Amino acid sequence: MSTTELELQEFRADVAAWLQANKPADPGFLLPQTFMEVGDEHQLEFLREWQHRVWSAGYLGMAWPKQYGGGGVEPVFQAIVDQEMRRADVPICFNVIGLGWAGPLINDIGTEAEKAKYLRGILSAEDIWCQGFSEPDHGSDLGNVQTRAVRDGDEYVINGQKIWTTMGNFAKYMILLARSIPDTPRKYDGLSFFLAPMQVPGVDTRPIRKLTGEYGFTETFFTDARIPADCLMGEEGQGWKIAMQTLQYERGAEAGAAGGLAMVRVTVDDMISQLQGVMRDGEPLLADPVVRDQLVQAIMEEKALILGDRRGHIGALTSDYPGSLPLSNKLRASEMSRRMRQLAINLQGAEGALYVGDAEARQGGFWQRAYFNSFSVTIGGGTSQVQANIVAEHVLGLPK
Amino acid sequence: MSVVGNTALRFSDEQAMLLDVARAFCRDQSPVAAVRAQLETAAGYDAGTWQEMVALGWAGIALPEACGGAGLGVSSLVPVAECMGRALLGTPLLSSALAGQLLARAASPGQAERWLPALAAGEPATVALLDDGDWGAPGLALQLDEGGVLRGGKRFVSDATAAQLFVVAVTHRGAPALAVVRAAQLAATALRPHTLIDLTRRAAAVDFSGVQVDAADIIAGPQVVAALRDVRLLGALLVAAEAAGSAAACLDTMVDYLKTRKQFGRLIGSYQALKHPAVDILCGVDSARSFVYHAATLVGEGPLDRDAEIACRMAKAQACQVLSHAGDRAVQFHGGMGFTWECDAQLYLRRAQWCQQQFGDPQHHRRRLAALLLD
Predict the structure, then answer these.
(1) Which of the four pLDDT bands, split at 50, 70 and 90, describes residue A140?
(2) Which of A92, A127, A162 is the last residue of a domain?
């Protein structure tokens, strides 16, 4: 039986009403915009409680199987919830590595035991997940992972170091990419993928203080850490393949995420509305022709990104440079976001110099922090410069 | 409502077919040798090519069916214009199309039936809009007096030497009006061709002084103001479509060179100092194309609404900006070769400077956009 438009409309109204009634009050501290910004226990507990409330109401993991804590309904319902959450401007569902990457992976290729063990805790926010891919010496070169996993009886012994582990200090589980077979002819073939517990002896995390002054990532050290052998996902040597599948979820190229608002999106509308009331040379800033031109260009950048998505679905209009729009998406989106946030601060007048913690900072220093944090996207997941190389080589066919 | 507003982008089967056909046609008819062969001719285009375009139905493609057109609207011309821009193909097609749009939008049904079938059948026409050098000028200087006599001239009239029919924007009885003038009515010395920066284009200053316009050839009324505004926006869109095509071709030219030229023992395309700007241009071309086809989605046969106006202005601003940048970098990245007449990069650089000015430069459009978006 297919769901009717009317049912969906009624559902949307129910969700909106629930969000209205359950939207948390302002906690009095600046909340994370993304899951990479959970810096302290206050933020963590606040977000954990919020995600639990959303899940308890049946609004998270709606398309995941019922027996594992999901809702067992069509994905369209979760899409409606996500839209309404964005509209209602509620906090994020922060357990993103579980909800968006590890969860769908386990759902798609995990064993029954893995599904039963992990999925419910991801949704309820009881079990926080982190990702152990990046290593200190080769940020963007994932195939070169050096962390070792050596089989010893019923266990694997892990040695090595990961970096940029989001919420590493809070996480119960890690999706871990490690080398279990040394000296394979192709470096990719020696990698294995683990659903690894974090709270075992030999796993140490050291929070990394970000340029914002806050925390959110850790370095993670494995020193003879022993994890059960059944943490191995799939077979030994399949790590690269599984990691690539995980990245597909991460990039949104593959469906299956539990849903929930993953990040507070910042738009040009937000930037422009925060500028109301700012004065320059005794006139409203928004009347300044130079500023107006900068704002128009920012609006055009954001609009071009959305229109690019639309055009990307039309085959006849993408045949010139196939792959161009998807391959350059991260580059364009992250750079636009960084530029816009920098502009937002520059337009605040003298108050642009105030930072989080100053009572008079505009929106509590939201834009200042957002600008600094935007580098996590222009650097993380392959810097813009590496992205530009990829586009140059794969789309334009330029030599390495 | 978000300031980003309407983001519709649709592409019909007819448009897709036109894109295919036009792409192949322009590639075959207008290889760079053919473009160069026309640079210093008086006409600036090959008559046979123009006849084939007419035979393909392109002269009437956007005109109403009742007047001999295909009734597909300006959105159908956009893919054709993009392909023409890609191949730097001249011909009076776009000038004629804009003259047709101005008539279709402002003339009475009787007048439209008198003029449009000839345009649809391939009679070259053009619009004479610009009094001086300011696309944002509030009024029209060229006067049509009580006796129906024109006093003054126009500048930057595209394809004026080819045109048999001029749709001229004038002030008549204190209000904007249109005068339809046949080439035969002009004095022998009326046309003064401009020496243009873009040698693939032809335009002239036209002195209309003394031309006697029949009452039947005058279009007056409040609809003229709206039609003039719409045609300037449609002009901006068609130039944007051409510019997007030219920018893509310019990028291809640049990339070809980066893949073949060696310096210091390496292909120069391996240097990031050249690679990254090429990617910037690619992203700019992608944006331009998106804006152009978004605008094509929103322009219909009726008056252009606010969303369509925003879309046309954004398309023009983006496409011309990226073409200027692409042309500039293409010359630079060709090194010493880029400084020569033989290098094709200069063709795009010159085209960029022409497109930039036609129907208003990016600053002009962004200024209008600021008022539309921020006030």
Answers:
(1) low
(2) A127
What are B120's two structure tokens?
């649809």
pTM: 0.91
Residues of chain B with pLDDT under 70: none
Residues 6 or more apart from A4 whose CB is under 8 A from it? none
Neighbours of B328 (CB within 10 A): 17
Residue A296 has its nearest CB partner, among B9, B282, B373, at B373
Architecture of B224-374 per CATH? Up-down Bundle (1.20)
Burial B101-124 (b: 16+ CB within 10 A, else e): bbbbbbbeeebbebbbbbbbebbb
The domains of chain B are located at 224-374
What is the structure's pLDDT at A2?
63
Give the domain CATH number at A282. 1.20.140.10
Question: What is the pLDDT confidence band of residue A1, given thresholds at 50, 70 and 90?
Answer: very low
Rounded CA Rg of chain A: 22
Query: Which of B276, B282, B294 has its CB closest to that of A321?
Result: B282
ipTM of the complex: 0.96
Distance CA B39, CA A23 (A): 67
Mutate to test the interface with B, among A317, A328, A385 (most CBs of B within 10 A): A317
Mean pLDDT of chain B, nearest integer: 97
> Which residues in chain B are contacts of A308 at CB distance < 8 A?
286-287, 290
| Structure-token pair, residue B59 | 């002269």
- Residues listed for chain A: 400
At residue A4 the predicted structure's pLDDT band, cuts being 50, 70 and 90, is confident
